[in-house]
Structure formats: C-alpha cells, structure tokens
Design a protein that fits this description.
The chain has 32 helices and 19 strands. By secondary structure, the protein is α/β, with parallel strands linked by helices. The protein binds ligand 26V.
Length: 752
C-alpha cells in the first residue's frame, strides 16, 4: 500500500505540492489521502456485533495514529523528509477532536483501537460535540473556558447521509450519522465510530461557553457536559443522552434486520456495552422499540438483559447519575412505562428499597437500571471491583454474584509508546525485536537486559531527549524549564479526590525548605495539567493556588533556580503525548479507594516514569508487577479510608494542629500569597482544608512529603534509577488495552 498516488491526486487537484504547500495544506492532503486509503478497507466480521455506547470518545489527533495502524508511518516520514518537511510540524496543524473529558473518554478511544486491531466486530456510538468540553485559558490567573471547535471542512468525519428520527416529549429531531473510521493495526480492517449530530448545529457561542440551553434543536451537540447548575442544563444533558441512545438503538435494529435476523434473536447477534451511566437509557429504548415492533414486553426485557453489559467507572456518589422522573416525563415520556416495567421486574427479584430503579421519591437510578438489566457488570481495576462488590454495590452483588467481574483498564501502546515516544520504541526494538508492537506482553523480554548498562544508559539519554523536546515546546508557549531538572508530573482532570491540592502543599513545603537554605541536589520541575469542571469552585480555586505559587516561585531569585511549577494550559491528548515521554516521576496520589483505575499511571509507566502514589486504582496492580523497590507508595490504605468514612472519624483539624502541617496550610493565606492572588479564592481553599478536607489531603500529607523526598533523593543514583525505569517499561505490557479487550471478549461479549 502506498500513500503517494492519493497524496499526489489531492495536491494536484488543489494546485499544491510537497515542496510548496503550507503545513496546514499538507495536513489536509494527508488526511484526505489516508481517508481515501481507508475507504475500501473491510469491517471486522463476526456473528455477534458489539456496539460500544459512550458519551465520550477522546480520540486525540488521528493522522499519526492512523498512519501507524496502516503501517505507513515510516514511508510518510521518509517521503516528507525528502522534501524537507516534517510530520511533527504538519500534525501540529491538526485540531484535536474534543470529544471527551478525561480517562473515561480516552479509555473508550483506546478500546476502539484495540477492538479494530484484534479484528473484533464492533463499533462505537456517541455524539459529535462541535465545541467539545471547552478550551481552557489560564492567562488571567484563573481558568476561563472557551469553545474548542475542531470540525474543519477537510476533517476525518464522514457524512453518511443517513439519519434517524428521534422523538422527544414536545418535538422531534433528526439524528444525522457521521463516522470516524478506526483502522486496526496492520490488519486491513477498518471499524467505525458512529457520531450522531443535529442537522442544524449552532455556530460557536460569542460569550465563552454560555449559550441558550433551551435551544435544544441547535445546541444539542454543541458541548460535552453543558453546565448543569440549573434545570435547563440538566434537561439538555438528558436530551443529549436520549438522542444518542435512540438513534443508536434504531441503528442496531436496522443492522440486525439487514443481516436477516429476527428481532427475537437480538441477544445472539448484538452486544450493547454501556460505558458508565450516560447511555443507560438505551435499555428502555431498545425495549420500547422491540415492543413497538411486536415483541412481547417480558420477552423484550429478557432479550435486552442478555444483550447489555455495563461498566462502572466511579464510586463517587455525585457521578452516579439519578434523574427525577419528572425530567424524563418532559424529555422522553415514552420511556417511562418501560422504566416502570423494569422497576417492577427488579422488585420481584428483590424488594429492598435501595435496589430500586424508580425510588419512593420518584427518582430514577441509572446505575441500578443498568445492573438489573445487564448480563454483566464490571469495575475497571481489581481494587475498584472489590470495593463495588463489598461496599458500594454490595446488595447488588449478593443478588447477582454471577454478573460481577473485573476488567482492569488498559491503554493502546500504538499511541502511547510507538506514537508518542519513537526514540524509546526504537531502543526497545533494537533490544528485543519488534514483536512487542503486536503483543505488549513481550516487553517483559526487557527484563533480560537489567545488567546491560549500555542499554540503561541509552534509556536515560532517551528520557533526556524527551525532556529537552518538552522544554522546547514549553518555551514556545512562554515557559522555560531546565531539562536537567527532575520532571515531576501530575496530569489528569482536576478533582479534590485526585489531590492536586496536596501536591500544592508539597510545593509550599519545598519552597519554604529552599527559603531556609535547604536546597535540593538537583532542581525540581513540578508540572500540572488539568481542567476543572466550570462549576466546580474548589477545583478552580486549586488551579488559582497553583498559578499563584508558580508566580511566587518564579519571582523569587533564591528559589527559582531550584524549583519550578508549571501549569500547562488546556491539557489534552496532544499535550499528554509530549508530557508522558518526558516524565520522571508520575504523581498518582488520589485518596485510596477513590480513583477507580487511572490510565495515565499506565501511560507514564510504559514510558519509563516511576510512580509516586497511593495504593489506589490500578496503582495496586502496578505495584504488584514492578515490586516495591520500583515504586514509591505512601498513605493510608483503602480499607483504612473506608473505615474513616464509615465511622465519620476523620477530622482535618486534628491534622492541621500539627505544627508542620499548619505552617503549610496557613501559607495559603499568607501575605506573600495574598498579594499574588484573589483573597476570596485562597481563603475558601484554606477554610476547606481546615474544616472539611473531605478527601483527606492532610491525612496523608506528611507521609507524602517524606516518600517524595526519598524518591527525589533516589533519583540521584542514576544507575539504580535506570533499573527502576527498565522494570517499569518491561512490566507495563499487562496494561495493553489489547489484553483488556481480549478479556472483555472472552468473559462478556463472546463476539467471535
Ligand atoms: C460523570 C459525570 C456525572 C455528571 C456530570 C459530569 C460527569 C462527567 C464524568 C462522569 C464520569 C466519571 C467517571 C470517570 O470518568 N471515571 C474514570 O474512568 C477512568 C476509566 O475507567 C478511570 O481510569 C478513572 O479512574 C475514573 O475516574
């Protein structure tokens, strides 16, 4: 397969050439050429077909990823180089589709890559948000939100011309189907991500991300998670969800009939995967459509239960969706009789009120509906699944022990190692050959090179190159870092449970240490990348604190040679692809029991970063795989934390009273910081620390500082550190999403 003829055709048609066209024109040309190459490729086949429903698919830029999977990356790089052009510069022009928020959406994207690469018959189903989550700006010392448009005339989206009618309470809309093609890795297969859209999308709002939330027909697909602080916003989210699942359910039944199967055979030929609760209404919608077409109600409910599977991604109460029945009455009244029927059916299995789908207060619990009406339910890492079974969903587990199973998350090594870290990939291939590219488990072979000091030296120098590359990129955005410093990185959504605020207290501690003359052996660069939900005040206050600290440090000539704090603006997949390969220390410091899995932890590990973390989420598996000498673990265990919550036994003031802790917390409202920032914001954070601290940052703070200091000291023994890096890379293969997807197929989907 050669891309050249397709590229030439496009360039000639547009009067350009590899020598004269701009980077942006070449990006369009390459996009069009890849699309043309993908057009004739076949979809994966199989008796049963998977429909993976998700509100988010954080796919990232597609040019490099698709070239890798088509086996064309090296050819294209060589072709461009022959004309003095570089793919890195060209792809910098590619807008990143902003179709997700964090781990949940990125996981769905990694899964699609693995599904296609394993030749599994499955497509994604989601929404085509025009302005994404939002584009983050930090130039005012706090976060502001702007639309993040990504759809260009020459984009990856294919207009299928197909649409499905979706009926709401008081009006109807057509859901127009656009597709993103998802090629498998060097297997000639191309699956699809189906993205539904309104027919007349609104132009970008003028006032940040504010728009008329009652104008559903134009704005339904404007933003992911529109502000839900008022009722119109909450209703809009419900409109989005129903739009996605109703169109998706119609597509499923249409494909079933086109393949010549009866509706009664739905479960034999289709699997519907429900990624978190946002697509839950697909359950009553499928039942509604089946009964409308003549299937008897009980039979339809049985069929749908055998067809659906549900993944839980969080135990945080605020993220477990529940909707007042009155909202559904307004948005989608036609579903209520079916939800009522599902509730009655569930009550026959158990009459415990806490298992109800439709509770006594007329609130509908989406996760409950999913569990009662799915064949399988899974958590996303061992500890998370155990907490679901033993605590959060215990009564459901007692009722349906056979439904529950664990599927530890994974990442695609094609994007997160081959794509973002070519230097490390080449080094690995030189050592163990290329088989790891098809089977990441083969990375284990690197363990044989533990005594090969030349290889470990190269590992260190590749890390150094990646740090220099990041430094160059940051410089282009106005920030200077020392590539020789230790790069300590925390990149993830901003949430109190993830405890960026605890990391901020470490920065204060370090600042004060340096002020007192205790300078470190080597400078430390602390990097943060995080978006806060627009209405999440304390998360925004934390960003403000980090920005204030950053300025305070920069302006202090005694401290700035030794410490740097960088907040990367608009953290997204593309910036992650620069940050991940450069990282030395991977911050995974959530309060134990709260992070369902984490997937950034896996990406950073695979790129030779060493984890500093709690025994939470998939850190537990990482720790077991690498052994305690190759990871820095601190903090209370999940069991201890769960006990503290159950007995309401945590008082942050008890910890604040310790002089060393008090000094750090009080610094937030010190004159130095108050001159940097907004008193209201800083004192709100301060008060939260001393009076609430719901996610117990102060509980683990001292242990965190001690272990982090040990980690930074250990970094100086470069030989020992390179061994840790090697073990982390070698043992990361378990976290390939190919392994995760193979397990889903074996235990849940049975597609082959
Ligand atoms: C829920 C909600 C609820 C209402 C409004 C906005 C909103 C946005 C996102 C969510 C989903 C939260 C669940 C989630 O993102 N979980 C993450 O899933 C990752 C993939 O399994 C996992 O690695 C992370 O630990 C987990 O936090």
């Amino acid at each position: 397969m050669s891309i050249q003829p397709y590229l030439d055709t496009y360039l000639t048609r547009h009067g350009g050439s590899l020598d004269t066209s701009s980077d942006r024109e070449l990006m369009y040309a390459l996009t069009a050429a890849v699309r043309d190459l993908q057009k004739p490729m076949g979809h994966a086949q199989g008796k049963r077909k998977l429909y993976y429903f998700s509100a988010e698919f954080l796919v990232g830029r597609l040019l490099r990823a698709n070239l890798i999977n088509l086996g064309l990356l090296e050819d294209v790089e060589a072709l461009l180089a022959a004309h003095g052009r570089s793919l890195a510069q060209i792809e910098d022009q590619e807008p990143e589709p902003s179709l997700g928020n964090g781990g949940l959406g990125r996981l769905a994207a990694c899964f699609l890559d693995s599904i296609a690469s394993l030749g599994i018959n499955g497509d994604g189903v989601g929404l085509n948000y025009h302005y994404g989550l939002f584009r983050q700006r930090l130039d005012t010392g706090r976060q502001t939100e702007m639309p993040d448009p990504w759809i260009a005339p020459e984009s990856w989206l294919l207009d299928t011309g197909v649409s499905y009618p979706v009926k709401f309470g008081s009006f109807s809309l057509n859901a127009r189907l656009y597709d993103l093609e998802i090629p498998g890795y060097e297997n000639g297969i191309c699956n699809r991500l189906h993205l539904f859209d309104v027919e007349q999308p609104a132009p970008p709002p003028k006032d940040g991300i504010q728009f008329d939330k009652t104008d559903i027909s134009h704005h339904l697909t404007s933003f992911l998670y529109p502000d839900d602080s008022d009722e119109t916003g909450r209703l809009l989210r419900l409109y989005q969800q129903y739009f996605m699942v109703s169109a998706g359910a119609q597509l499923i039944l249409q494909e079933l009939e086109e393949r010549g199967h009866a509706l009664e055979e739905l479960d034999k030929y289709a699997v519907v995967h429900i990624n978190d609760t946002h697509p839950s209404m697909v359950i009553p919608e499928l039942i509604r459509l089946l009964t409308e077409r003549g299937v008897e109600l009980e039979r339809a409910m049985d069929l749908v239960e055998r067809t659906c599977a549900y993944t839980n991604h969080t135990i945080l109460a605020e993220a477990l969706e529940k909707w007042p029945a009155s909202y559904l009455e307004q948005v989608t009244p036609q579903l209520l009789p079916f939800i009522r029927a599902l509730d009655e059916r569930a009550r026959k299995r158990s009459d415990a009120p806490k298992l109800a789908i439709w509770d006594a207060h007329d609130v509908i619990h989406m996760a409950h509906m999913d569990i009662h009406s799915s064949a399988k339910v899974n958590g996303v890492a061992e500890l998370h699944t155990e907490i679901l079974k033993n605590t959060e969903l215990h009564s459901f587990y007692v009722l349906y022990p056979e439904k529950f199973n664990n599927k530890t998350n994974g990442i695609t090594f094609r994007r997160w190692l081959m794509g973002c870290n070519p230097a490390l990939s080449d080094l690995i291939t030189q050592a163990i050959g290329p088989e790891w590219k098809r089977d990441a488990g083969k990375l284990e072979g690197l363990m044989d090179y533990m005594e090969d000091s030349a290889l470990r030296e190269q590992l260190l120098s590749v890390k150094g190159e990646n740090k220099t590359k990041l430094a160059r990129w940051l410089k282009g955005r106005g920030t200077e870092i020392t590539p020789d410093s230790i790069l300590d990185i925390q990149i993830k959504r901003l949430h109190q449970y993830k405890r960026q605020q605890m990391n901020a207290l470490y920065a204060i501690w370090k600042y004060l240490q340096i002020k007192e003359g205790r300078t470190p052996t080597r400078p430390v660069t602390m990097v943060f990348g995080a978006k806060a939900a627009p209405a999440y005040t304390l998360a925004k206050d934390t960003i403000h604190l980090l920005l204030c600290l950053s300025r305070l440090i920069d302006q202090d000539p005694q401290v700035s040679p030794w410490l740097k704090l960088v907040m990367v603006e608009n953290y997204n997949v593309s910036s992650a692809e620069l940050l991940v390969p450069a990282c030395d220390v991977s911050e995974q410091i959530s309060l134990a029991s709260k992070e369902a899995s984490g997937t950034g932890n896996m990406k950073l590990m695979a790129n030779g970063a060493v984890t500093l973390g709690t025994l939470d989420g998939a850190n537990v598996e990482i720790s077991r795989l690498v052994g305690e000498e190759n990871i820095y673990i601190f903090g209370r265990s999940a069991d201890e934390v769960i006990d503290l919550y159950q007995n309401s036994a945590y008082r942050s003031s008890d910890y604040w009273q310790k002089p060393e802790v008090e000094r750090l917390v009080d610094f937030i409202i010190s004159p130095q910081l108050l001159t940097m920032g907004d008193a209201q914001s800083l004192s709100r954070l301060y008060k939260d620390f001393i009076s609430k601290d719901y996610f117990m940052a102060l509980l683990d703070l001292e242990d965190y500082i001690a272990v982090k200091e040990r980690c930074l000291t250990d970094y100086e023994d470069r030989d020992a550190w390179s061994r840790r890096m090697l073990v982390n890379i070698a043992r990361s293969g378990f976290f390939s999403s190919d392994r995760t997807i193979a397990e889903y197929d074996q235990d849940i989907w049975h597609l082959k």
